[in-house]
Structure formats: structure tokens, C-alpha cells
Design a protein that fits this description.
Number of strands of chain A: 8
Helix content of chain A: under 10%
Low-confidence stretches of chain A: none
Number of strands of chain B: 0
Number of domains of chain B: 2
Oligomer: heterodimer
Largest interface: A-B, 32 and 33 residues
Number of helices of chain A: 1
Largest sheet of chain B: none
Structural class of chain A: mainly beta
Order of helices and strands of chain B: HHHHHHHHH
Strand order of the largest sheet of chain A: 5-4-7-8-1-2-3-6
Shape of chain B: globular
Mean pLDDT of chain B: 79
Structural class of chain B: mainly alpha
Chain lengths: 105, 194
């Protein structure tokens, strides 16, 4: 796995629309320029009000990524290993899991 | 899990049970010909239906009405269809007066009806793009990643090959070509079927 030397790639995922803004979420997954297998990719998660997801787990590309204060991370190689997995879920204590998807953004 | 186990998992608010509800009930119903068109008309989403079902089953304890007779999937699906039909604002005989003009009575006037709104057209195109992309994602996430990397990030086939560990740039081109065909076909299908 190797990302372009001069480009940062950021995927945006968001939840299915939910009536309660607190139940909605939006996640950015950023691969820094020049990343390789062992490099960390950064996850940033906010809810529908724009507040960081304080605590939770984000399921994406076959991984369950721990979130703390709106941030998480994973190895780039692990993303490639799970590139065929379509399940995207946000798990937060005291809330039902909320599914989502990759967006064309 | 069997229907009884599934219903108990749903009653307990467990992730596994509710994930199955999404996969087997809400998402398929929201894509069915019967409901998809109505949902579009009433601005109802699959996420809305999921929220309504949770409210009904857990907050109103309707889950306790399921006695194991008949399929749990079918039982839940009847609720979801009911939500879609109930979303019709005229379902109870209400008359919309939104467009009534109190000064128009008895007077003749020419109505200029806009036949095209550019903002609406742009939004429709964007919404349809997202919808087709969602279909592509569900078909094969790797195709969706390749489509995104080529069209939004303008990566070369060599760069996509290195990013996603695809076997060769030629294979990237082949997958990208298939993703474009799929998006076009999905667009036509949605325009035809809603």
C-alpha cells in the first residue's frame, strides 16, 4: 500500500439520515501523502450537531476503530485488507448503532 | 439466529438484532418498488423508518405483541410499510391550502408556473449521483473506492493500484470502466423505477 507523495486522500462517510441530530454522524478518514502499510490513517468523527463523538467505535473496512474525543486511527495496511467490506456502523454508549456509507465527496 | 432469538435480541436493544432489522427489513423495504417511490414523494428515508421502528418496538413496546407466529421479518415489514403509507399528508382527508391565494377568488389572473428550477435540478442530479454511488458501494466497495479515487481525486491508475494493492493498473482501468457502466445503468434504473 502506498499513497501518492503529494496528495492527501480523505474519504468522507456519513450516517443514514436520522431525526435526532445527535444520532447522526460524519466521519473523515485521512490518508497522509506518502503513507505506506505501517503508516497510521486518521479518523475524525462528529455528530449531527458538529460535536466530536466523545466515545465509541467506528466499524469500517472490516475494522472496529476506537474513538476518543472525536479521534481514532488505524494502520493503512488494515484498510486495504478490508477494502471489500461494506459494513459501516457507528457504535456509541447509550445509543443504538447507526449505519452509514461512503459518500461521493 | 431463529425468529424468537431475533425478536428477543431486538427487544433487548442488542446491536446484532437491530443490525439484522436494518439488513433484512428496513433497507430492502426502502428499496422495494412499492415503497421507494412513496418514500421519495414524502421525503422519507430508510434512516427515518429505522428510527420510527425503534420507537414503535421499544418505546411503545410493540415488540411484546410478537408471539412467534409467522415470520418476524414479515411482521416487522408490515410495520415499516405502514409507516410509509402513513407518511402521506393527505391520508386522513386533510386538504392542503398551501397554494391557495385569498385574493384570487372571482378574479382572472395568469399563473406563471416555473417549469424548471436550476437549483432543484442540480440537487436532483447530486442526489441521484449519491444514490447510484450507494448502489455501487453495496455491490462492491472496492469498485466504489476506485471510482472515487479516479473521479474525485484524479489519481492515475498506477496510483490507485498502489493505494489499494490492486494487481495491475490495467486491472484498475477494467474495474473503473465497470464502475462507470454500473453507475450509468443504476441511473437509468432509478429514473425508470424511482
Amino acid at each position: 500500500m502506498q499513497t501518492p507523495e503529494e496528495k492527501t486522500i480523505t474519504f468522507t462517510l456519513h450516517s443514514q439520515p436520522m431525526k435526532d441530530p445527535k444520532a447522526r454522524w460524519k466521519v473523515s478518514v485521512t490518508f497522509a501523502a506518502g503513507s505506506s502499510d505501517a503508516s497510521p490513517a486518521e479518523v475524525t468523527a462528529v455528530d449531527g450537531d458538529g460535536s466530536p463523538v466523545a466515545c465509541g467505535e467506528f466499524e469500517f473496512a472490516g475494522m472496529k476503530i476506537a474513538l476518543q474525543n472525536g479521534k481514532g486511527a488505524f494502520r493503512c495496511a488494515d484498510f486495504v485488507a478490508g477494502k471489500h467490506e461494506s459494513a459501516v456502523w457507528m457504535y456509541r454508549p447509550g445509543m443504538s448503532p447507526v449505519p452509514g456509507m461512503l459518500t461521493f465527496e | 439466529m431463529n425468529d424468537i432469538e431475533w425478536s428477543r435480541s431486538v427487544a433487548a436493544g442488542e446491536d446484532a438484532g437491530w443490525k439484522l432489522v436494518w439488513d433484512k427489513v428496513v433497507e430492502p423495504e426502502s428499496r422495494s418498488m412499492r415503497s421507494a417511490e412513496l418514500m421519495l414523494r414524502y421525503s422519507l428515508t430508510a434512516g427515518d423508518l429505522m428510527g420510527m421502528l425503534y420507537q414503535e418496538m421499544i418505546a411503545r413496546d410493540k415488540i411484546s405483541l410478537y408471539r412467534g407466529e409467522g415470520s418476524f421479518q414479515g411482521w416487522l415489514r408490515r410495520y415499516v410499510r405502514g409507516f410509509v403509507l402513513a407518511a402521506n399528508p393527505n391520508a386522513h382527508g386533510e386538504i392542503s391550502i398551501e397554494n391557495a391565494d385569498p385574493d384570487a377568488e372571482g378574479a382572472s389572473r395568469t399563473l406563471d408556473i416555473a417549469v424548471r428550477d436550476e437549483n432543484v435540478s442540480r440537487n436532483d442530479v447530486w442526489t441521484m449521483t449519491h444514490r447510484c454511488f450507494h448502489d455501487l458501494w453495496r455491490k462492491d466497495p472496492e469498485r466504489a473506492y476506485i471510482h472515487l479515487l479516479k473521479t474525485r481525486f484524479h489519481l492515475s491508475s498506477d496510483e490507485v493500484c498502489a493505494f489499494l494493492d490492486v494487481s495491475s493498473p490495467a486491472n484498475v482501468d477494467q474495474i473503473f470502466s465497470r464502475s462507470v457502466k454500473f453507475m450509468r445503468s443504476a441511473w437509468v434504473s432509478h429514473e425508470k423505477n424511482g
